Please model this.
Amino acid sequence: MNPLTTQLGIKFLSDSLLSPQTLCTMSKTVQQFKNTILFVLSEQLLSEKELMLNCYDIAKYFLSLADEDAGDLISNLKLQKLVYYAQGFHLALYDTELFPEEIEAWTHGPAIPELYFIYQDYGSNGIPVPTDVDFRIYDSQSRELLDEVYQVHGQFSAWKLRNMTHDEPPWKSVYANSGAGGVIPKSIMRSFFKTQLIESLAVA
Model:
């Protein structure tokens, strides 16, 4: 059947059988139904997004913790290390990755290429605190981990963190064997950070 014929037929039935009041009521009902569907879909998308954090989400969270008024901003170098430590401890604690992007062994320590190039223009200067962070995408577990990482490692300078990673097996082994740009396997990170957690518990 021709689509246009069908459309005209429906219009004819509507015009001839339904009163204006009925058509108005039906229109409102359809609109309410559409609004309900849109709401459900938006909630679904938000729920899925909560399960799919990426390196940019982690970076924005750390950047939001900086005290801009006190001049305590985070440079790109420091940001790379904070995100690296967050991934490492998440792997150790929960045996799952916090974000999917790969971390590479660069000259100045672990780095996420995609993230580095986003903030490259800031050089060694501090990155402004973002104003578009959607905190709803972070569950309580992720926020607790990120807050803890920032509390412990955020106190150190970018260069201090850089030197710390140079003394740790994940960066050292990959950089020694593959040179700059080698991907740091998550399995190596998981193993190392698990050891760190065990040692910290033993000391405590």
Observations:
- Residues 55-203 form one domain.
- The chain has nine helices and five strands.
- The chain has two domains: 3-50, 55-203.
